[in-house]
Amino acid sequence: MSVMGRWAGAFRWTLMLSLTLFLLGCRPAAEIDVSAIADNNRAVGLMGQYRNEEARQIFAELVERYPEQQTLATNLAIALLNRQTEGDEEAALQVARGVLQRAPDHLPARYVAGLAELYLGRVEQALPELLVVSDADPSDSHAAYFAAQSLAQTGREAEALQRYQQAIEADPYLRSAYYAAALLQRKAGEAEAAKTLLADYQRLAANPRAHLAEFRYTRMGRKAEARVLGAAQAESQAPRLPEGELFAAAERVAEVNDAPSNPVLNTADLDQDGRQDLLLFGVGKSRVWRGVADGFQAWDEHPLAALDQVRAAGFADLDNDGQLDAVLCTEHGLQWWRLGATQESLQTAAGLDEAAGCDDLNLLDADHDGDLDLLLRGGSSANHGSTLLNNNLNGSFRALDEFADVVPSTGHRQWLTADVDADRDLDLLVLGEQAPPLLLRNDRLWAWQAVELPVQWPGNWQAATLADLDATGLPSLYAVDDQSRLWQATPGNGQLSELGKLELSTANAHLLAQDFDGDGRAELLVWSGAGIEVLSVEGEALRPRWRYAGSVKALQPVLQAPAAGPALLALVEQEQGLALLRFAPGSGRFPFIALQPSGRSHEADGMRSNVSGIGTQVRLRYGGQWSIVDSLDRHSSVGQSLQPLSIGLGGARLADFIEFGWSDGVMQTELALAAGELHVVAEQQRQLASCPVLFAWNGQRYEFISDLLGVGGIGFLLSPGQYAESRPWEFFQLPPGSAQAREGQYLLKIAEPMEEVAYLDQVRLHVYDLPPGWQMTLDERMHTGGGPAPTGAPIFFTDAGLIPTAGMRDRFGQDIGPMLAHNDALPLDPGALDPRFLGRLAEPMSIELELGQAFGDGDDLWLLGDGWVEYPYSQTLFAAWQAGASYQSFSLDAQRQGSDWHPVYEQFGYPAGMPRGFALPLTEGLGADQAQVRRLRLRGNLEVYLDRLRLVRASAPPAELRQQAISVKQAQVRRVGYPRRSSLPFKRPHFDYQQRSPFWDTRYPEGHYTAFGDATELVLDLDDGFAIIGPGDEIQLAFDAPESPPAGWQRVLVLEVRGYAKDMDLYTRGGERVEPLPITAGLNSAAGRDLARAHNTRFQQGR
């Protein structure tokens, strides 16, 4: 029986329900009681949380009670369509058809019917339904989009283009329509029209308002979303800003009669007590004030207070040890101060002692390797050049010649940092004295592309900053000149416009962007020797918000109370001398939320982003409002402070959700964070890449097995210019009993629950039936150069072929034999981890095996292991390369009678991913005198969890062996969402297929994937005709099961997978895109490529 045939039971009840709906169609509608309305509304809320099965149960109960209610039945159809278990699409279609039999004009039901048909690949049946909806409601952009998609698939491309244009006009933020229309324009020869559409498509890439059309709840349009019952509630108007000023009247904090010249104020939590402290630097004596409950008090005993001649200071955790550091530009050179328990200065750190000093500095992760680098401007040289010091994360720094080669050597006045092109890496913008701004686009791996912005830059500019005031996803450049004019430019296109003129004199002015009124949108603050002015940018005009007249010498916003938002601390010259003034938050503000991002998690043993969270982008959503900020320096004054981000919520009690874009390119979403509090948000060390994962039907459910094609990774960086070689095949032996036949077929699923793409060329199932007393494994492992390359061939041995050991010991001499005797998911603890780099041990692992009996001279010897590995990422390898910290896979040594250890195979490999076996042939390496070997030793520093180690003597296959290679009977590509991932003891990964979410913090690599539906011919032959799946996708495979073996025999299933995988790590080569497709050497792939072009028509990008 086919897989489709088995779906009948899944929707039999739905057919009966549809018939009931039809037969009761003439019955007068029963009045819905209050409890039913509440139940329906609760189910609608569950749909919004993607708890589709819980919602379906409620909707089904309500439909049984009120079968004449069309909204309830349509809600049920929508829940079925999104639950995505076998047969759900057909079941949803039947329910929708039942509604249409009674109410042919019910557009939501007709739309759901059209979507179900389209998802099932029946385009001819879907098209009339979608056209009816699109014609009846031209304002429905999603209906127009899916109608256009159906028209294009049936060859009616001119009509399709019109519908795509209709979708764009109805919703200018529907990105999918721009791309699809561009492809049709290009095909029609309209190159310029296609270019314009693609430019619009790219322009919307970073805009949080932009969205996609796809088969996921909330992305199919409003008619495919469950609806509430009862009277519609009027939308509440946005609350009005509270009455009052942004800041209270100035209060004196301290007299500062001995203030340094060229003063600079900075803030950081020096003693990690949760309160911001304040520092004053400049040419002269430094000052420090400790933050206390009611303000600040002098902290003269702090070691930084004893310094003088500090031109600029930056604060962060420079070495990721959990303690605050300070980097100081002084007349004596660059200084690094550790401000933890030791309070020590590290002026002699390699690379810092050679720096020429600086007048200003930025702390940033310029190369996205998880640590903070130093961008220095000016110094002892008179040309005001700049230097980028790379942090090697081993206590040393190096000046990057690659950076010096692309920047002008003179005239640097200010550096700004941001991701100006929304490609997840940090670009640099240098502002010169007279020249136009120079943009350095980050090409990663210490490469930048210099682009001069084509703007008429005001030659008399004073200060600049970057901010995304309108939450478009792309920052704008704001600058003030000495004529009190404020300017705005977009780094992407260089367009410059004058926003208006300030009341304030702006000679020697400074500029910063910060939300001060709590509405979630930053204001601009300009300060100079004439005072302070806060302004809102409204369109292309300025609105003054607050002003202070006074001779301001230095200024720093400081967050003292999370709910109130930032205060201003200012050094002001008054008649009686210099004074430190505090402008407390005023009453004219909404409450704020405070966020302190950090790359360190208490639950994680490693990290991928810097501890201080510098470079994190935050996208906050409350109600219909977006706010976009980041943790980079947005104050034009020299130096760099460190404090939590402060964002207003416009009167809302909590943020609906907040998206964190970490400096390693990883996304993370936090839900329902309350206003008025400080939220410390640590980066979750989630497994974003590993390779596709395998599920098997075990007789009751689909159960997670392991991952596949770790050996076939594309573009994995080992060190600059060196990438791992891809091996485009793997033979994987399923654990005993993990797959059970279901109605004569073995059912397997290869899914992508991570941020990567899988290219599957051929999949076959090998079935081995072994007589009693026989076992087998496979010649498989991740090969890293040592020893013979694996072949994937079966290795047979008898129970008597197991070679006993007299003991196994670790490097401390402890007996570990019992831990490695059984494959029981209780592995050997590999030891302490290197906290700097994922997947690396602090000290190498060593395991000695003492033989219980001598090897025979002619024995075919194998070392067999079971376990799993914690993979590093390309970024991790790049960071470790800088620090000179190598990753060493397992090596094998041998000790003969009366001799020392000698190497057999250096770095022969490791288990290639999640739980699996691996094998190493020994006979060739041990040589003719293998009978003299008394001990073997494994050593390496990868984070490998070894579960079992065995020595075996291989044999020829048994004469009674039954063996078959079975081609796939049916393959279906489906969108199923993300099985819930958990980490079991010893970091053993597990995925629960029964608990799936339609969304996760992942992105699709941009490109074309296999269309949903039948993909059998793509995975039948080895021809580079790939079935391509991405995040949230799966390919379900059915294989005919052979007749069961005789009683007492053992059946072994081996899955042969040919293909590749690629993740989206910032340093994976080509990780952002699906194309170009891999090419397998030695294949005649012309037919396969034609096949792939016909099937791989589903374009995806982004979230």
UniProtKB/TrEMBL annotation:
PROSITE patterns: PROKAR_LIPOPROTEIN, TPR
Keyword tags: Signal, TPR repeat
Spans of repeat TPR: 141-174
Gene3D superfamilies per record: Tetratricopeptide repeat domain
Domain spans labelled Bacterial transcriptional activator: 115-167
Pfam families given in the database record: BTAD, FG-GAP_3
InterPro entries recorded: BTAD, FG-GAP, Integrin_alpha_N, TPR-like_helical_dom_sf, TPR_rpt
PANTHER family, per the entry: PROPROTEIN CONVERTASE P
Record's protein name: VCBS repeat-containing protein
Organism: Pseudomarimonas arenosa
